[in-house]
Design a protein that fits this description.
Layout: E1 3-8, E2 14-19, E3 32-41, H1 44-51, E4 71-78, E5 90-93, E6 100-104, E7 109-111, H2 118-121, H3 124-137, E8 144-148, H4 152-163, E9 167-172, H5 175-184, E10 187-192, H6 197-201, E11 207-212, H7 220-226, E12 227-236, H8 246-252, E13 255-259, H9 264-275, E14 285-290, H10 294-303, E15 310-314
Parallel strand pairs: 8-9, 8-11, 9-10, 11-12, 12-13, 14-15
Antiparallel strand pairs: 1-2, 3-4, 3-6, 3-15, 4-5, 5-7
Helix pairs in contact: 3-4, 3-9
Length: 315
């Protein structure tokens, strides 16, 4: 069957390609279902991390390897103990970019309501991460929340924090992403922090909570400066270690939180907000292409990541 996999090039760089002879999943047993992919979604941060040998990357010796965690599939076979899903149901599942997969019906998945666009659901993984982050930071009505980085997850987090009642400020160093953030209309301030603009535009002690989706190594201490006393700083994956000036955090009694992935409950709440039009996915889909065109997308992801935002592959 077809799959998108990471392979090692002779010069030790990595690329992602579509292969046609990836191992088939086993037939479903017990409460498992077998699904056939309709759409899969690019997980920009995690998959670029794998392409450049980051903290999520498989070792060279383990390549080729699959990846991704956004697969919208149609149920084509059920195990004997399945009670909740039926043939023909569309589900979002936390599965690789593969043509077919099995998953227990109580696994990390969501049965899609008929009014949800399945192409948009292909980004439920990264928007689910944003949901989990906003719940972890406990964004509250009237609080000032700074979201650093306006890639897909940052833009989803801005919408969700706003829906939770927070007063949202977003920042990035890429103006095209900030333009998209302005169009979403959920942020009180949209700030370009390229060059030395951070100190000029982000006043110290302003924010109740700061969420980092940029992953820059030197950004933690400035984020702590931006927090109020006993503020919260949330960090999302994508790094080997964290360094900051301890006394800055000690003086403010900062809470530093880590966040990773999402739950079924996050997916259900995300779906609810999408159906209420409180969260929008469609404006963030910049590329929707046939899976055979995926290698070019991944070359951009590795070498020119700012060209991409939301990407959906059609199977």
């Amino acid at each position: 069957m077809r799959a998108i996999v990471t392979k090692l090039l002779p010069d030790k760089r990595r690329e992602k390609v579509v292969v046609s002879e990836w191992p088939e999943p086993a037939a479903p047993v017990d409460n498992e279902v077998l699904c056939e992919a309709v759409f899969t979604g690019l997980t920009n941060g995690t998959e670029r991390n794998q392409l450049i040998g980051g903290n999520y990357a498989a070792s060279d010796e383990r390549l080729p390897a699959g990846g991704g965690y956004q697969n919208v599939g149609r149920v084509i076979e059920t195990g004997p103990a399945v009670t909740q899903l039926q043939l023909g149901d569309l589900i979002y599942a936390s599965k690789d970019h593969v043509e077919r997969f099995t998953i227990p019906e109580d696994g990390l998945l969501l049965k899609l309501p008929p009014d949800i666009n399945p192409a948009e659901a292909a980004l439920f993984g990264i928007s689910g991460v944003a949901m989990h982050c906003c719940r972890r930071i406990d964004a509250r009505i009237g609080e000032k929340v700074l979201i650093v980085g306006q890639g897909c997850i940052g833009m989803f987090a801005a919408q969700i924090a706003y829906a939770m009642g927070a007063r949202v400020t977003v920042c990035d160093i890429e103006e095209s992403r900030l333009a998209q953030a302005r169009q979403l209309g959920v942020a009180e301030q949209v700030i370009n922090t390229s060059g030395d603009s951070w100190d000029a535009q982000l006043e110290a002690g302003t924010f109740d909570a700061v969420m980092d989706f940029a992953g820059a190594g030197d950004i933690i201490t400035p984020m702590i400066h931006a927090c109020k006393v006993r503020g919260r700083v949330l960090l999302v994956a994508g790094r080997f270690d964290v360094n900051y000036t301890f006394n800055v955090g000690q003086h403010k009694e900062i809470s530093i939180l880590q966040c990773s992935h999402f739950t079924r409950d996050d997916l259900a709440n995300l779906c609810r907000l999408l159906r209420q039009n409180s969260v929008k996915i469609a404006p963030l889909i910049r590329h929707q292409v046939n899976v055979d065109d995926a290698p070019q997308i991944y070359r951009w992801l590795r070498d020119e990541p700012m060209r991409l935002l939301g990407t959906v592959f059609e199977w």
